[in-house]
């Protein structure tokens, strides 16, 4: 997949989407981009007649939206993002530019203008790279636009008003949403569909590729030490694809090294007092034997080589509670952090710098502080804290993965080698060996579930169901999400007695919380509570075929026709190479396995579930729903 590395280029950067449009957020989230949303305050009031073409208006508006956010973030919070993305979508018909309707009458005018005709949708996009020099914001703007042609069918008055009364047109350029009800008005689309929805993803990725992988302009030449025409500069040794985090820096960077690795062909001549010039030198071995540097610098591979260091830096900083110390805008110098965590100053400083380089901490002359992301996800007592899970990664998974070679050779989980215990004991012993560890593991699972529950609960229309049983539902996060979305649902969480005994401290409080029931039991051995929808979230991938057979036969046996089973798992693509998170999890060699969409479908069908639907949510967990066959099947 060519586009992934391009999006991956932005992983370590603070990316801000300067847009309130939920569609733009969704499009970019769906491809794995991590970003903050800071809607722009720029009013879309540029004088349209001053632009030679409509796309110029859209580009300029997008640019102003992004620059307003970049400036505001820089000035108000003294936090400069690396990249701000702005966009503006307009519809043009004839010479007229249509933006969002101001009221229903306006929507009516727009839609009747579009009825039966072809129109153009332009989205202008601005990618603003920011840097801060002496507290002064420097920006470099890259912009582009995309045009898509859309033809509407003839719209009757009745249809028009029905559509307007649906409320859909009001926050959309041209007064329609092609991705929803508005799709029914459309006869054809020529061009990028997502451009109409609000963000031209394909063109955006191409732009990023241009910015981050500029074509090689020069060949790198072999060095031979004895025939050296000296050169003054390495400027002409353009590496074509520096991994500099900012393409602005890319232009002026001296190209002696890339990611700290000397470029092939670059040698450092020692400064020698008697020599003619202390210059860096390059030589051509033989003009006819000029060797081309490989087209792309292996940045992905270098990133992977360093990946374990980055993970461990995060784990250790979490374990030492660095992010707790720096929470809520607290700024501390390395020496103060070192004192508090009782560590060496030099070691602490290196750790803090590593965290800053990974985008987890902010470093200024005053000291170190948490980034927004660290405040939300790394401080241990935050609602969505991943702290517990990170400690689990450090204390358990890390050890397991140090035995990966043996795991691959033997095809078995290396629990015994890593912990001196057998697989069967892992859950009990590794996760629940002490009250504290039990609490931490449950907190970790609870907080992870909070990140995924909403997308699972809303993946399908579950309104036909009246009772739900979440098997292995732990602290009931998904259960609560379900009763919030469907208040009449009677939801039961069924889990091991050890788990149920500890769920009370995880329950939400408040008058309007619909209760969830908790029942203790073992789903392999005990009778299951009655329900017309059963849920298995993150269960099947850990079970071997025999256990799956016991569990699914049991569920299938008590499901009445029309009842259903909802699975929440990561769904692999059919090649089983994506998403990497699931593929890498497989390396633990648990007795279970990750499955593709087709495999989940076949599995459910094998146990009498039909009409299987799969929803890739864009979140960590996807959802699979199958209905128990009616007797007619
Ligand atoms: C044609 C069409 C447009 N849209 C939405 O129309 C808004 C355009 O307005 P904007 O001014 O570009 O953006 P905004 O919503 O005001 O957000 P902001 O970026 O903050 O200005 C964006 O939302 C788009 O998705 C759809 O959702 N579907 C469609 O078929």
Automatic annotation (TrEMBL):
Keywords: Hydrolase, Methyltransferase, S-adenosyl-L-methionine, Transferase. Its cofactor is a divalent metal cation. One of its GO terms (biological process) is methylation. It comes from the Eukaryota. Pfam families: Dimerisation, Maf, Methyltransf_2. Residues 303-380 form the O-methyltransferase dimerisation domain. Homodimer. NCBIfam families: maf (TIGR00172). This is Acetylserotonin O-methyltransferase like. It comes from Chrysemys picta bellii. The lineage of its organism: Eukaryota, Metazoa, Chordata, Craniata, Vertebrata.
């Amino acid at each position: 997949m060519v586009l992934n590395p391009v999006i991956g280029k932005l992983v370590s950067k603070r990316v801000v989407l300067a847009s309130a449009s939920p569609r733009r957020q969704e499009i970019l989230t769906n491809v794995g981009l991590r970003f903050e949303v800071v809607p722009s305050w720029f009013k879309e009031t540029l004088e349209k007649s001053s632009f030679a073409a409509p796309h110029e208006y859209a580009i300029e508006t997008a640019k102003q939206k992004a620059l307003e956010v970049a400036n505001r973030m820089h000035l108000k919070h003294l936090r400069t993002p690396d990249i701000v993305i702005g966009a503006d979508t307009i519809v043009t018909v004839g010479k007229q530019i249509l933006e969002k309707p101001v009221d229903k009458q306006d929507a009516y005018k727009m839609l009747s203008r579009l009825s039966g005709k072809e129109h153009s949708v332009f989205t202008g996009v601005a990618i603003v790279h920011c840097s801060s020099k002496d507290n002064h914001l420097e920006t470099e703007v890259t912009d582009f636009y995309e045009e898509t042609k859309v033809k509407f069918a003839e719209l009757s008055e009745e249809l028009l008003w029905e559509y307007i009364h649906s409320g859909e047109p009001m926050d959309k350029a041209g007064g329609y949403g092609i991705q929803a009800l508005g799709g029914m008005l459309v006869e054809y689309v020529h061009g990028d569909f997502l451009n109409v929805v609000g963000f031209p993803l394909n063109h955006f990725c191409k732009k990023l590729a241009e910015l981050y992988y500029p074509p090689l302009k020069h060949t790198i030449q072999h060095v031979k030490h004895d025939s050296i025409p000296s050169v003054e500069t390495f400027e002409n040794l353009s590496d074509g694809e520096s991994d500099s985090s900012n393409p602005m820096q890319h232009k002026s960077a001296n190209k002696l090294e890339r990611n700290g690795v000397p470029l092939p062909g670059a040698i450092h001549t020692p400064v020698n007092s008697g020599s003619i010039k202390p210059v860096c030198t390059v030589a051509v071995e033989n003009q006819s034997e000029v060797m081309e540097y490989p087209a792309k610098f292996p940045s992905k591979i270098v990133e992977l080589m360093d990946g374990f260091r980055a993970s461990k830096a995060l784990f250790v900083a979490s374990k030492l509670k660095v992010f707790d110390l720096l929470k809520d805008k607290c700024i501390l110098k390395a020496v103060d952090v070192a004192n508090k965590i009782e560590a060496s100053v030099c070691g602490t400083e290196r750790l803090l710098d590593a965290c800053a380089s990974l985008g987890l901490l902010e470093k200024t002359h005053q000291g170190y502080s948490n980034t927004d992301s660290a405040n939300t996800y790394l401080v241990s007592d935050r609602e969505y804290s991943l702290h517990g899970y990170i400690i689990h990664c450090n204390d358990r998974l890390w050890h397991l993965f140090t035995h990966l070679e043996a795991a691959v050779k033997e095809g078995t989980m290396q629990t015994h080698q890593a912990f001196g215990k057998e697989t069967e004991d892992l859950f009990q012993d590794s996760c629940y060996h002490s009250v504290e560890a039990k609490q931490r593991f449950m907190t970790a699972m609870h907080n992870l579930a909070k990140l995924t529950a909403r997308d699972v609960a809303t993946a399908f229309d579950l309104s036909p169901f009246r009772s739900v049983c979440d098997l292995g539902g732990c602290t009931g996060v998904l259960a609560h999400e379900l009763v919030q979305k469907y208040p009449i649902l009677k939801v039961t969480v069924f889990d091991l007695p050890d788990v149920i005994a500890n769920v009370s401290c995880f329950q939400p409080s408040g008058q309007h919380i619909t209760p969830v029931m908790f029942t203790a039991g073992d789903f392999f051995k005990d009778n299951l509570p009655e329900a017309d929808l059963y849920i298995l979230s993150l269960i099947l991938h850990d079970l071997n075929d025999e256990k799956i057979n016991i569990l699914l036969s049991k569920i299938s046996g008590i499901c009445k026709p029309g009842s259903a089973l909802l699975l929440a798992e990561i769904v692999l693509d059919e090649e089983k190479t994506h998403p990497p998170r699931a593929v890498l999890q497989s390396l633990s060699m648990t007795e279970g396995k990750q499955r593709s969409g087709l495999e989940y479908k076949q599995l459910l069908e094998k146990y009498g579930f039909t009409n299987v639907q799969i929803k890739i949510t864009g979140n960590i967990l996807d959802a699979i729903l199958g209905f128990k066959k009616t007797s007619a099947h």
